[in-house]
Each structure stands twice: as C-alpha cells, then as structure tokens.
Amino acid sequence: MEAHVLGFPRIGRGRELKRALEAYWRGESSAEALLHCAETLREQNWRYQYDNGLSLVTVGDFSLYDQMLDTACMLGMVPPRFGTVNGDVDLTTYFHMARGDAQRNIPAMEMTKWFDTNYHYLVPEFSAQTNIQLASRKLLDETHQALALGLRPKPVLIGPITFLSLSKQEDGVNRWEFLPQILDVYCQMIQRLAPLCDWIQIDEPVLCTDLSLEGKAQATTTWQQLKKAAGSCQVLLATYFGRLDEAVPLIAASGCDAIHLDVLRNESHLTEIIQQLPTSMMVSAGIVEGRNVWKNDLRCSRERLDRLRNMIGDERLMIGSTSSLLHVPVDLFQEQQLDPAIKSWLAFAVQKCREVALLAHLLDDGDHEALLRGSDRIQNCRRSDSRVERPLVRQRAAQVCDAMHTRTAYALRRPQQAQWLHLPLLPTTTIGSFPQTRAIRLMRRRYQSGEVSEQVYRTFMQSEIHNAVSEQDVLGLDVLVHGEPERNDMVEYFGQQMDGFCFSEHGWVQSYGSRCVKPPIIYGDVSRPRPITVEWIRYAQSLTDKPIKGMVTGPVTMLCWSFVRDDLPRDVVCRQLALAVRDEVQDLEQAGIQLIQIDEAALREGMPLRKDEAETYLRWAVDCFRLTSAGVADTTQIHSHMCYSDFNTILPWIAAMDADVISIEASRSNMDLLEGFRRLEYPNEIGPGIYDIHSPRVPEVAELIDLIWRALEVVPKEKLWINPDCGLKTRQWPEVRAALRNMVSAAHQVRQRVEQDQQSCRTAD
Asked: Which residues make up the binding site for Zn(2+) 1 (predicted)?
C-alpha cells in the first residue's frame, strides 16, 4: 500500500535554509553556496521520508522562498517592473519579486496568508503584459536529483485552478483567459516528468473553499488535459484543509487516477464522497494531521481506515498526511528540555512520516495489538494528566456574561480620549516592535541559560527600551511604543508566562521566506498567574510625556499561532485565552497606560474556509476580542492590528470588534484594501499601513504622500492614523530610521496641506 506525505518542511532541522538565505541576501555568501545548501536539505528531507517507511518521496515542495512564487516563475510570470524574462528566471529576479528591489526602488509582489494557515504566499500578478512560457526547469531537475539517489519521486505542482484562484489581476484583465497558455506550460512539464515517475501530485486546496464560477466551469476539463499529458503516469489530485462538498462531482469527472482527501475533516461526508467517485479512482486517505503536533491515535485511525477500506478495498487505498507537513516542526528527536510526559504525546514531521508508514502497516494482515496498546497508553496518559484540566479555569470561563463584552458606544468614548491625548491630525505611530539586534538576542539567550543575573538582564532591556523611546522622540512620532526588546515572539513570549503552555527548543516553522516562528503548544487549561508586560510598559512611559501604547497579543492570534490542544473545541480554548489577556489589559490600565493595542493579526486566518461555517467562528472570535477589551474605562483607547490577509470579506466583523483604532496592512495592495472600508463606512479610526516592512527597500517621501492621499479618499481626516504595515523586529536600524523619517515627513506635509485647506475654507466662509 502506497504511503506518502503531501510535503515536508523546507527550513531544515537547524534552520539551515534561513541562515543560507540571509547570508546570501547580505552578500556574505554566493549563489552556489545557497543552492548547495538547498540541494543538501532536499536530500535530507527525502531521506527522512524514505528511512521512515514511505514508499514515495515528495519532490517540488521545496522552495527558496515560496511555492506559489516558484509556479509563477515556471510560467514566466515576472511582473514587468522587474524586467523581461529571457530563458529561465534568474535568482536575482526571483528574490526581487519576493522582497522588492531596494536599489531600483521597486516594490515586492503582494503577500498574503495561505488559506487558513500562518504561512504567507506571494500573490501572482496578471496584466496585459503577461506572457506565459516555460521559464524554470526546477521541478524537472529536482526529480532527476531524487532518481539519482535511488528514490521513487512524486513531483508536486500547485494546480492551475488554485493558482488562478489565488492570483490577482489588473483592471481590464481577466486572469482566467490565460488558462489555455498556463495549461500548455503545465502539460509540457508533465510530459517531461511522466517517464520519470509513477505518480504526479496536483495540489488543488481551493476545492475545499466555495469555488468561484470560473473555477467550477474550468476545473474538470483542466484536470482532464493534465491527465492526458501524463499518459500512463498516475495523477493524484490533492485536496486539503477542509470539506469537499460541491467539488466532488468535478473531481469524479476529472479522469485523475486518485483523489487525496483529508479524512479527518471529511469524515461525516466520507460515504457520500466515495459513492460519487468512479470505482477506478483510488483514494489517498489523509489520516495523520499535518498541521498540529499531537501524536496519532493509532487505534482510532485504524478504525477509520478500516471503514474506508471496507467501502473501496485495499487495492484503491493509499495512506498519507492530511496536508503538507510544512506547518509543523522538523524533528521531535532534537527536543531535550520538554517535559518527558508531554513529549510522549507529540509528533513532528519526521515522526509523522513514521506514523503514516505505521498505519499502512497496520492494515496488513497480522497481530498488531501490542503496537495499538502502546498507542492507547500514550492517549490515556494525556487524558488523565492533572495539568490538562483545571477546574477553576473552567469555572471562570463558564461565568462569562454578555456585559463582559460591552463598552460604551464609540461616539461617546472618542471625545473623552481626545481630551487627554491632544493628538494632531494624521497622528503617527508604529505597530509595536523595533529591530531585534544581535545584542538583544544574545542577552536573552544568556539570561535564559543562567549566564547573567535577572538584574543584569533587566538593566540591559531597560537601556534598549530607553534607546527605542529616544529614537521615536527624535523621529517625531506622536504615539510611541517601548519596542518589545524583551520579547522573542509575540505569541511565545506571552505563552511562556501563562499556565497551560509548553515550548520546544527547535520547533521552528516557516512563516514566509526566511522568517520562522516557534509556535507554543497549548496542552492544558490556560490562565495568567501574574502580570506580563506592565513593568516594561510603565518604565517606557516614565521616559516621555508622549503617550506610550501598551502591547499585548490577542486571544485569537494566540490560538491560531499556537499548536492547540485537540481535546477541547477551539472556542473554549480561545475564551480561556481571552480571560487571561483581559487580566493583562486591566493591569496595564491600572498602571496608568491608557493606550493599549491588542493585536489580532490572525483574526481572518482563523476563519473556516466554507462560508456556512464562517459566521459561527467570527461570532465567538469577535466576542473573545471584546472580552479582552471591554473591561477598561471609556478614556482608555484600545487599538488592534491585523496584517497580510484578505479582510474585505469580514469588514462588518472587524467593525463589530469595536476597537477605537485599527491598524491594517495596506501598502502592498497600494491601498486597494481600503475600498472595502469605503463601502462599509467604517465607524471608528483606522491606520492603513503605508509602507511594507517585509521588504528592505526604504520608501520615498513622495510615494508615502501619495498613499496617504489615497487613504484620505476613503477615511475621514479626523479618523486616519499613519503607520507601517507591521512590526519592525525583522528590519535593521538604519533602514527603520530612514523609513520612519520619511513616513513622519510625509504625514507632516499632508497634515500641513490639509490644515491649510481647512483654513482657506474658514476664510472663504
């Protein structure tokens, strides 16, 4: 029985790819060194899969930045601002597309979230100048590399329907009209791959969403053409992340040899799905969770697979992960500091490969009871551990009432806040973090390892906060932040000081490019035993007469950016988190901090992929935000921040959060996002990001002025804030100073013009 995973983490056990990329970007290593690192990591990933018993190794999922970007390069889709493609897309152009070209002041491609994950993809661009042609041999070369190692490669391509559905188009251009050209390139690549392998995987996760009319109309004939190009090579049409619903008849008519589906998320519809499929079509059962770290319950999974096998027979069954393992850390074996009991409950990517192979083995004839009993013991140990369920936390969550979600109306709060804030028109601020320098990271490591005392650590961090406040004062920002030098990560930092969390040492997961995060693991009921940020924020406020924003991470973002326990509903866990954050917000207010930002960067990300499930989620997610913010006085101004997601579909719910000020990523879309706020007539204040912090380029003042004027076409001047897209922790101080200096200058110039226009109007009257 074939056993495989849909993809594997790229970054390496020791984040080798991150270091190789950043050394190359700094000019400290060559392209050859970077490509050698990539080749070594690909081989290691394939060895993990093969050595743990998988019959196929996935090829083509490895990327130097992003697989959607790789697909755009395969199609020769280089936006005109980056130059003309002659032959294959070169490495310099590839990274300019991803990160922008600072020397020529060319912005990067837009970036947003991959479905409902914290992974970011680059959004392909269609324009009148788009010319589709085969412009990358990457997938073919990597397939040859796997073959040379004696492995069975399974090349993977992002499917044309998903690629087009997730792309953007200029006005007057219909991206679906490019489908014939795209199919021609796909067919060329598949025809070259087919003689080399038994299976080709076509990823179409968009099938687990509400398909567009164009997607529905084009899907079946598209896959039929791909299958025709593959000839005798078998095609696996892969779906993941959710339910298939209306996509099943399209899949059934595709002519593909197998369908991969997430058994866990389609379990209630499994019989209905199987009944609609041709009897010749195989089923790849995604049974090992690809997005969370809990060890598979082998007995429960075997029972699920037995039911599926009884419907279709052994000869039609394959075993796999629910999705790519890109979303989990590489190897649990590295973890030496985790509590042994909790560690026994976990599985990272390497261990999940083994679980897939074990489940294929468990379907063979034979006595496997000893293996199943071992799995049972682990599951029972987790359920019975006294740290998992805490009665006082459950009792407090059960006592939450409607009044705890409600503030005085914004129209009444606003004048009370303005009375003490005394802010100018178009106030300037930042999202929260400032550069995490090498010295900061070193001090944090030394403190955590016990090399320096707590007093030395606190003195150092206070000096960094002092520097950050001084820098902002010199730049002329209106609302300041403390810079967050003490924080390793916006979720991990808070989780480390709450009950119910545990943490890995090496559990890194790619977020975008070289950016990695180390998600906390929520294993038990959550509470906050003591204040977390109050001391640092209060110290920052003592350094200046300007208002300092207190910065906390919101409950939905903590939920989405952690590996969450799977034995409680997500809304129950989120309510526990909200109560913990509520305590922190109230302690900040009592300490004299009257601007508090509750970041909910992941609000859109956590939404289910199907519209019929979205409202239920949004209702409890917004309630959890309001639970954190509604316990403060009317004079306290609550901010929230969101970034890198398609928010237009949930703007009424963003309004329902009732934050006094919301800051939101908008620069990469050239303020297009604000059109939704125009239609909604958003009632509160808003700070659309006016420069992209994920690119090293420094925006020019004229460019920023233009974006501010575009924002003023939508947002009333009294309600517009000026800020970057996101936090600045990943940037270097020289570019931060230059970019913020330009941002403040742009805000001052527009403010002066607006005030002059107001004076002219008063004089005319």
From this structure: 641, 643, 665, 726
Write down the H helix ranges in 7-159.
16-25, 31-51, 67-74, 91-99, 138-148
* pLDDT, tens digit (0-9, with 9 covering 90-100), for 224-276: 999 999 999 999 999 999 999 999 999 999 999 999 999 999 999 999 999 99
Predicted TM-score (pTM) of this structure: 0.91
| Ligand-binding site membership of 515 (annotated) | yes
Active site residues: 694
Maximum C-alpha span of the chain:
93
How far apart are alpha carbons 602 and 616 in whole angstroms? 16
713 marked among binding-site residues: no
**Three-state SS sequence of 621-663:** HHHHHHHHHCCCCCCCEEEEEECCCCCHHHHHHHHHHCCCEEE
Chain-centroid distance of CA 141 in Å reads 29
pLDDT tens, residue by residue, 649-706: 788 899 999 999 999 887 766 677 777 777 778 889 999 888 888 778 899 999 999 9
How high is the mean pLDDT of the chain?
94
Residue 704 vs residues 96, 691, 699, 734: alpha-carbon distances, Å? 21, 7, 7, 18
657, 628 Cβ separation under 8 angstroms: no
∠ CA(200), CA(206), CA(208), 5° rounding? 105
574 is in an annotated binding site: no
Q: Which residues contact 651 (CB under 8 A, 6 or more apart)?
A: 676, 677, 679, 680, 682
Sorted by where each starts, the structural domains of the chain and their CATH numbers stand as 3-384 (3.20.20.210), 423-497+532-760 (3.20.20.210)
Q: Any residues with CB less than 8 A from the CB of 641 and at least 6 apart, and which?
A: 431, 432, 597, 599, 600, 601, 662, 663, 664, 726
177 annotated ligand binder: no
Task: Answer yes or no: is 136 a known binding residue.
Answer: no
Radius of gyration of the chain (CA): 26
Whether pLDDT at 288 is above 70: yes
- Backbone torsion region of residue 420, taken as left when φ is above 0, otherwise alpha when ψ lies between -120 and 50, otherwise beta: alpha
